[in-house]
Design goal:
By secondary structure, the chain is of the alpha+beta class. It is built from six helices and twelve strands.
């Protein structure tokens, strides 16, 4: 159809790959929901097809458009608290597996909390710190809903990653989809001259917020975070970049692939019990 310029891929993860190949072959730009694909090898094929057909493929990692996350990147970029030493990204949430589509409980089709939540957490860290990841170590698995008790579930529900950048910055990712527990969603950042943290609501709760600790009295100062429509901001920037003919998309096209490379490294590390070395663009 000549009246269609862009396709929006809000499909189950295992359908992203073929949908993107078909859209690229039809000469349509692609705005694909995260993660780019189930596997990094599929993402590489999708990017190659987009390039070959002269179209753009952007993975919609929307959380970088959340005002609280953007505020945290602003703190890092400003240098007001000095240099980043380390970060802790957390997402602890209720699971409710039997209220989810079946494919979300099958890793081979892109299910599991690594693809669902871990990809968001990796996205935030790569956006703020950069792609120069050196090594990844991880433990993850099916712990809160073990397969012996839940035979129809075949994916991870829990994970902890340790990511080291070539610069020396390190980050820990903590995620769990619980049956009994408490929700925690956000990130803590530690600098040479202070600390900062952001919190996001999940399933209700307090509004998103940013906190700064830059004094010696041990207290946090809450910073107001203006609210915006993150999905609209992201899609608007994507369309405007196409209209301008930019060389790349607002979220770089390679970004979704790099998120998958780190995610697959966490799975390899958990499977082998070894640290995984990465070399990303």
């Amino acid at each position: 159809r000549d009246d269609v310029d862009v396709i929006i891929g809000t499909l189950p993860h295992w359908l992203h790959h073929q949908a993107a190949l078909d859209a690229a072959a039809a000469g349509k730009h692609i705005y694909m929901e995260k993660p780019t694909a189930v596997w990094a090898s599929e993402a590489e094929e999708m990017l190659a097809a987009a390039k070959e057909n002269g179209v753009k493929l952007m993975t919609a990692h929307t959380q970088r458009y959340y005002p609280a996350v953007r505020a945290m990147k602003g703190v890092v970029d400003s240098g007001d608290l000095g240099s980043v030493i380390m970060a802790y990204d957390v997402w602890h949430k209720p699971y409710g597996p039997y209220g989810r589509p079946e494919w979300m409980l099958d890793r081979s089709r892109g299910g599991g909390m690594g693809q669902m939540d871990g990809s968001h957490q990796i996205d935030r860290l790569l956006w703020i710190i950069g792609y120069e990841v050196a090594t990844v170590s991880a433990q993850q698995g099916q712990f809160t809903h073990p397969k012996s008790e839940h035979p129809t579930i075949d994916c991870d529900d829990t994970g902890m990653y340790f990511i080291r950048w070539k610069s020396g910055i390190v980050a820990c990712v903590s995620r769990i989809a619980w049956d009994r527990g408490a929700t925690e969603y956000g990130g803590d950042w530690f600098f040479t001259n202070g600390m900062a943290r952001f919190r996001l609501p999940y399933g209700g709760g307090d509004a998103p917020a940013l906190y700064i600790a830059d004094t010696s009295d041990g207290s946090w100062r809450k910073e107001e975070v203006p609210q915006r429509d993150s999905l609209l901001d992201e899609f608007t920037e994507f369309i405007e970049s196409l209209e301008r003919g930019d060389d790349d998309t607002p979220i770089p096209q390679v970004h979704g692939l790099n998120v998958l490379k780190v995610l697959e490294a966490t799975e390899e590390s958990a499977r082998t019990g070894r640290e995984v070395v990465l070399d990303m663009e």
